[in-house]
Write a structure and sequence with these properties.
The chain has 326 residues and is α/β, with parallel strands linked by helices. It has helices at residues 13-27, 42-53, 59-77, 98-107, 121-134, 147-157, 176-188, 206-213, 219-235, 294-303, and strands at residues 32-33, 85-90, 112-118, 139-140, 143-144, 161-166, 195-201, 244-251, 256-263, 267-271, 274-278, 283-290, 307-313, 319-325. Bound molecules: N,N-dimethyl-L-histidine. Residues 51, 59, 168-170, 172-173, 213, 220, 223, 287, 289 line the site of N,N-dimethyl-L-histidine. This is Methyltransferase.
Length: 326
C-alpha cells in the first residue's frame, strides 16, 4: 500500500487563500516581509534536515547533548513526586531529543502519557509507529493541530499534571515581543504544579552564530529562496529566484540573527494576480533566530508569570533548556 504523505496532497483552497493573504500582506508592507512559518513544505523540510546536519549548525547537537546526558537532571527538576503526569510536546516532529527523556522516564517506571502536538498528521503517525516499536508500553496520544487548540484538547482528555516541552529553539523564530506574548499565552493554559520546559539558543561568540546561518555551501540561502519557489509553485507566482540573494546578519547586542532576501534589480513579480514592485537592493525580511542571555530568559519567564526554576546546559554552555514552574 502506498501511504500518501501529507505534503504530497494538493493544498486545499482554504489554506491556499490563507497563504495568499499572508504573502500579499507581507509583500505590501514596508519593509517587505514573509513569514518563516511557510519555510516548511516538502522541499523546505529536506533543506532544514540538511541544515541540521551541517557542521556549523550547532543547535541540534547541543540540545541532543542535554537530553542524551542530562535526562536524569531534567527529571529531578520536574517535581514529579510520584504523581501521574502528561508530557505534552509542542511541535514534536520526530521527537529525536525528547525520546531520551521519555526512555529515561519509562525505564524508571514513572506513570505518564506522551502527547505530541504537531500540525503534520503524517509526522505524528510516523512518530506513533516508531514509539510503538521502541517503547511499546508508552501511551502515546497524538494531537494534530495548532498548539493552543491542542493544549486545550489535552486538558479535556486528562487533568493530570502537565509537563509542556517546546524544544529546538523554536521560540527564537519569534521576535522578543512575540515570544513574551507566547509565554504568557502558554502560562494562561497551565495550572499550579504544571511545568514549561523551553529550549533557547544562547548569545555566544557572534562569529559562531553567524556561521551557523551563513554557511558557505549555501544551504541556508537555498532554505530561504525555497519560500519564493514555494510561492511560485503554490500561488502561481513568477519570482525569478536568481534575481534574489540571501543576506544574513547577527547583532551581538540585541541577539537577533536575521535573514533577508535582497532584490538584485528593479523588477515586478506577480503574486496571486497582484503586481509587486521590487527596487534594486530592496530586501524581504525572512526570519529572525533570536539568541538570549540567561538573564533575559529569566526576566522573560518571570514576567510571563512563571517561576524560572532551573537552567540545564549542554557541555559547551551554548544552549539551555530552561525549566519554568507555574
Ligand atoms: C527551526 N529554527 C529553530 C531554526 C533556527 O535556528 O532558527 C530555523 C533555521 N533557519 C535557518 N537555519 C535554521
Amino acid at each position: 500500500m502506498k501511504i500518501q504523505l501529507a505534503e504530497d496532497l494538493p493544498i486545499d483552497n482554504h489554506s491556499k487563500s490563507d497563504f495568499c493573504k499572508d504573502v500579499l500582506e507581507g509583500l505590501k508592507q514596508n519593509p517587505k516581509k514573509l513569514s518563516s512559518k511557510y519555510f516548511y513544505d516538502k522541499q523546505g523540510d529536506k533543506l532544514f534536515q540538511k541544515i541540521m546536519e551541517m557542521p556549523e549548525y550547532y543547535l541540534t547537537n547541543c540540545e541532543l547533548d542535554i537530553f542524551q546526558n542530562k535526562s536524569n537532571i531534567i527529571t529531578e527538576s520536574l517535581q514529579l513526586q510520584g504523581q501521574a503526569f502528561d508530557i505534552i510536546e509542542l511541535g514534536s516532529g520526530d521527537a529525536t531529543k525528547s525520546k531520551y527523556l521519555l526512555k529515561f522516564l519509562s525505564e524508571n517506571n514513572f506513570d505518564f502519557n506522551y502527547m505530541p502536538i504537531d500540525i503534520s498528521g503524517n509526522i505524528l503517525h510516523e512518530l506513533q509507529r516508531n514509539l510503538e516499536i521502541e517503547m511499546p508500553d508508552l501511551t502515546v496520544i497524538p494531537l494534530e493541530g495548532e498548539y493552543f487548540e491542542m493544549l486545550e484538547k489535552a486538558s479535556g482528555i486528562s487533568a493530570r499534571k502537565k509537563i509542556v516541552l517546546f524544544l529546538g529553539a523554536n521560540i527564537g523564530n519569534m521576535n522578543k515581543q512575540e515570544a513574551f506574548q507566547f509565554c504568557k499565552d502558554i502560562r494562561a493554559k497551565l495550572n499550579a504544579g504544571d511545568v514549561f520546559l523551553v529550549g533557547f539558543d544562547l548569545k555566544k561568540n557572534p562569529q559562531t552564530i553567524l556561521d551557523a546561518y551563513n554557511d558557505p555551501a549555501g544551504i541556508t540561502a537555498a532554505f530561504n529562496l525555497n519560500l519564493l519557489a514555494r510561492i511560485n509553485r503554490e500561488l502561481d507566482a513568477d519570482f525569478t529566484i536568481e534575481n534574489f540573494r540571501h543576506y544574513q546578519n547577527y547583532e551581538p547586542d540585541s541577539g537577533a540573527c536575521r535573514s533577508f532576501l535582497v532584490s538584485l534589480k528593479n523588477q515586478v513579480v506577480t503574486v496571486c494576480d497582484e503586481r509587486i514592485l521590487f527596487d534594486e537592493n530592496e530586501f524581504i525580511d525572512m526570519e529572525v533566530s533570536q539568541k538570549y542571555s540567561v538573564e533575559e530568559i529569566g526576566q522573560m519567564g518571570e514576567a510571563a508569570g512563571f517561576h524560572v526554576a532551573e537552567n540545564i546546559y549542554d557541555s559547551k554552555k551554548w544552549f539551555v533548556d530552561s525549566i519554568w514552574y507555574v
